[in-house]
Amino acid sequence: MPSSFTSLKTHIAFSTKNRVPMIDSELQPRLFQYIGGICRKKKCTLLAAGGVEDHVHLLVALHPTIAIASLVGIIKSNSTGWVHDTFPKRSRFRWQRCYGAFTVSESATDSVKRYLATQDEHHRKMTFKEEFIHLLDKHKIEYDPEWMWE
């Protein structure tokens, strides 16, 4: 019987629209739990999540049948609807269109998990914009800074 074997771990990062600080301590754990459920429905696994008030980082083991753009779109649209339904006073909650997705090797998985777990500490020194540009540069991804923040 033919089989396919994959290890498709991906570090995904995206922010709230205009980086408005909307993800507080009440919302964050429930949001990550909801996103984990979305991943499971798409045969993916949320391995770790982190972030601060204006953005999230997700470490996801992708199923080989789903494209990253599709999964991110589903996560953003479904979680936005869930936030609006569950927290009616947060009707202005939105995600930025842009996102970053970075492959993660098995040997780097624990390091990325630690990085996601220490986002509060990390962001005392660096803004999301600085962090995101650092990730793009580290992974040698070209970008046009004029258009990436709309």
Offer a few descriptive terms:
150 residues; four-stranded antiparallel beta sheet; Alpha-Beta Plaits; alpha+beta
CATH superfamily: Transposase IS200-like
Total discrete domains: 1
Helix/sheet category: alpha+beta
Q: How many beta-strand runs?
A: 4
Gyration radius, in Å: 15 Å
**pLDDT below 50 for ≥5 consecutive residues: which ranges?**
none
CATH architecture: 2-Layer Sandwich
In the CATH scheme, what's the topology name?
A: Alpha-Beta Plaits
Mean pLDDT: 93
> What's the overall geometry?
globular
Helical content stands at: 25-40%
What does this structure look like?
- This protein is α+β, with helices and mostly antiparallel strands and 150 residues long.
- The chain has one domain (9-138): 2-Layer Sandwich (Alpha-Beta Plaits), CATH 3.30.70.
- It contains 5 helices and 4 strands, in the order E-H-E-E-H-E-H-H-H.
- A hairpin with a 2-residue loop joins strand 2 and strand 3.
- Helix 1 (27-41) packs across helix 2 (68-86).
- It is globular.
Topology, element by element:
Blueprint: E1 9-15, H1 27-41, E2 45-52, E3 55-61, H2 68-86, E4 100-103, H3 109-117, H4 119-122, H5 128-138
Antiparallel strand pairs: 1-3, 1-4, 2-3
Helix pairs in contact: 1-2
